[in-house]
Design goal:
Strand content of chain B: 15-25%
CATH architecture of the largest domain in chain A: 2-Layer Sandwich
Strand order of the largest sheet of chain B: 4-3-2-1-5-6-7
Number of strands of chain A: 19
Number of helices of chain B: 9
Order of helices and strands of chain B: EHHHEHEHEHEEEHHH
Number of domains of chain A: 2
CATH topology of the largest domain in chain A: Aconitase, domain 3
Oligomer: heterodimer
CATH superfamily of the largest domain in chain A: Aconitase, domain 3
Distance between the termini of chain B: 36 Å
Radius of gyration of chain A: 21 Å
CATH class of the largest domain in chain A: Alpha Beta
CATH superfamily of chain B: Aconitase, domain 4
Strand content of chain A: 15-25%
């Protein structure tokens, strides 16, 4: 029977069919962070259980840890409790941790790629909804809750409801100035925030294939914004080149064996998907979000929807969004003054993102009254960027250069957008209050965010003098 | 886990679509492990700037005080995987959420905590809305044994739930213990898997 790549990886990890569409799956890699793991460890200890496979478990500090330059455990005072608990839990159970001052520390989904922890055909889980990011490497990666974290710690398995395989094809070529972030924002604009509920998304097509691995990570990252826990791209030579030599990737004879297996990881040509969605890459533009769900997307030069253009059942929600965001229906966002620009998060904080921004801001300056932050995704990204002089270029242009972490994406530490202020953000969620109480978030690509920082207002990067 | 047989009580209607888990419990209520998650439930909507209760928010409506059943709209609890969203509802006293749809992660998290998510098709959901939006608050019993929502008016609305999840809630099964009981099967699976993909089985450093 022809199989999708999803079925192939699922079957390869299926320990037991539990009935009702649930499978008990072997988990190859489990990553922990400080905020979603403490309850799991506490309950594990209370039940007198131990960690089943510490060698397949890794941890990093990213969510609540301060990103202030020179930060320590308690630079953001409330982080101390979480940071120290993760450290002590990892020490007690023999789990490798990329701790606060470790050169490998960073946002879990950035670190997982850099360290070669996520691998083609492997199952990978983390107590974070953006775990599908590393599906870009051909891994079956998904976000789980704290109880599931506890289950994986105790058993290195997970009882998982099997989603339906789905494919999103993006064919054709991207136009100049259109970035991987615009691809996923375009997908969200076209198909909406529930298109992927109950599904596992395989991204395919010429335009996806043409993306770098970091670009594919940006796309896979926002699968959860489509409602899907799982999102991935079949591995190819770009994947293998990316992984070769990574610290925890196989090496030597094991690499050869892995490569032979990985080369077979794709969907059969006649495999059947429960759903196939298609998009023409050449029609995509630089996009930005206008409302309070990640499906509220317009091209930067387009007006936001008019009330009349919105389906009746969505009108109440849209009205609330217009009011919360302080925007006028039917008018473009272009020109709206911006207070904060955030470049970072598991969506867009990798070296290629920062290189693009540095190049763009060369010879330009951040507008007065704009606070612009650049938060590299990991200590490794930070170091590599500094070696290229990216930090110096950004600082000269008026950006803050911070320590790695999730930062203003979720506003759990003191990196928050003040109430009523407008932020152009390269992160993944524009929910009410996501970046701070009353914060107004517009999701966009790093280049668009940089352009808005320079102009001090919402602008199309291509139109900046 | 405490078994869940039925949930009886007031139904509070929160009929906006796409309520995200950041709205169910904002990040600032997750800054300390000792914070009661129930306090953070819908905090952005529930409290005014000075910290007092917002009288316009439905959970603060005197008619719905002490509600145990939340009636939601479409795509409830999308976004972040934070299980704190379930804990917040539970600590507040909600043991059942009825909606047109749920996010996959929240839906799974509910079953780990003895909270019953009831997904209804539009026609049945409309009947529940009709009952819940009256002048006075309506009381209902959601019974997992009969898979019915019964209102004080006598109206009964059935719901679907797969047998496995239903049994787990009814028994309050310790899922980890159940998995550990399968250890022989797991071990033999791993022996084969480690032969197929030895690079996935890292040695302890």
């Amino acid at each position: 029977m022809p199989l999708t790549l999803f079925d192939r990886i699922w079957n390869d990890h299926l320990i037991e069919d539990m009935g009702d569409g649930v499978g008990l799956l072997q988990i190859d890699r489990h990553m922990l962070h400080e905020v979603s793991s403490p309850e799991a460890f506490v309950r594990l200890a209370a039940a007198g259980r131990h960690v089943a496979s510490p060698a397949q478990t890794f941890a990093t500090q990213d969510h609540i840890l301060s990103t202030a330059p020179g930060r320590t455990d308690g630079t953001f005072a409330l982080a101390t409790e979480y940071v120290r608990l993760l450290r002590s839990h990892c020490a007690a159970h023999g789990i490798q941790i990329f701790d606060v001052h470790d050169p490998r520390q960073g946002i879990v989904h950035v670190v997982a790629g850099e360290q070669g922890l996520a691998l083609p055909g492997a199952t990978f889980v983390c107590g974070d909804s953006h775990t599908a990011t590393v599906g870009a490497l051909g891994a079956l990666a998904w976000g789980i809750g704290s109880s599931e974290v506890e289950h994986v710690l105790a058993t290195q398995t997970l009882a998982q409801a099997k989603p339906a395989p789905m494919q999103i094809r993006v064919d054709g070529r991207l136009r100049p100035g259109v970035t991987p972030k615009d691809v996923i924002l375009g997908i969200l604009r076209n198909f909406g925030i529930t298109a992927g509920v109950g599904h596992a998304i395989e991204y395919a097509g010429e335009a996806i294939r043409a993306l770098s691995i970091e670009g594919r990570m940006t796309v896979c990252n926002m699968s959860i914004e489509l409602g899907a826990r799982f999102g991935f791209v079949a591995p190819d030579d770009a994947t293998f080149d990316y992984l070769h030599g990574k610290p925890y990737a196989p090496s030597g004879r094991e690499w050869e064996g892995a490569l032979a297996t990985w080369s077979t990881l794709r969907s059969d040509d006649d495999a059947r998907f429960a759903k196939v969605l298609e998009l023409d890459a050449s029609r995509l533009k630089p996009f930005i979000s206008w409302g309070t769900t990640p499906g509220d997307i317009v091209a930067i030069d387009e007006p936001i929807p008019d009330i009349a253009a919105i389906a009746a059942e969505r009108r109440a929600g849209a009205k609330a969004a217009f009011e919360y965001m302080g925007i006028t229906p039917g008018k473009p966002l272009e020109g709206l003054p911006v207070d904060v620009v955030f470049i970072g998060s598991c969506t867009n904080s990798r070296l290629s993102d920062l290189r693009g921004v540095a190049q763009f801001v060369k010879g330009r300056r951040v507008a007065r009254n704009v606070r612009a932050l650049v938060v590299p995704g990991s200590a490794q990204v930070k170091k590599a960027a500094e070696a290229e002089g990216i930090d110096a270029m950004l600082c000269a242009a008026g950006f803050e250069w911070r320590e790695p972490g999730c930062s203003m994406c979720l506003g759990i530490n003191d990196d928050v957008v003040p109430a009523g202020k407008r932020c152009v953000s390269t992160s993944n969620r524009n929910f009410e209050g996501r970046q701070g109480k009353g914060a107004r978030t517009h999701l966009a690509s790093p280049i668009t965010a940089a352009a808005c920082a320079i102009a001090g207002r919402i602008v199309d990067a291509g139109k900046l003098p | 886990m405490e078994p869940l047989i039925s949930v009886k009580g007031i139904v509070v209607p929160l009929l906006r679509d796409n309520v995200d888990t950041d709205s169910i419990i904002p990040a600032e209520f997750m800054r300390s492990l000792s914070t009661d998650p129930g306090r953070g439930l819908f905090a952005r909507w529930r409290y005014r700037a000075d910290g007092s209760e917002n009288p316009d928010f439905v959970l603060n409506d005197p008619r719905y005080r002490g509600a145990t059943i939340l009636l939601a709209g479409a795509n409830f609890a999308c976004g972040s995987s934070r299980e704190n969203a379930v804990w917040a509802l539970q600590r507040f006293g909600v043991r059942c959420v009825i909606a047109l749809g749920f996010s996959d992660i929240f839906y799974a998290n509910c079953f780990k905590n003895g909270v019953l998510p009831v997904q209804l098709p539009a026609s049945a959901h409309a009947l529940v809305v009709d009952e819940a939006l009256g002048e006075e608050a309506s009381e209902a019993t959601v019974d997992l044994r009969t898979q019915e929502i019964e209102f004080a008016s006598g109206r009964r609305i059935g719901f679907d739930l797969d047998a496995r999840r239903r049994a787990k809630l009814l028994s309050g099964e310790d899922e980890i213990a159940a998995t550990l009981n399968r250890w022989a099967t797991i071990d033999s699976f791993r022996a084969g898997h480690a032969q197929r993909a030895p690079w996935l089985y890292l040695k302890r450093r």
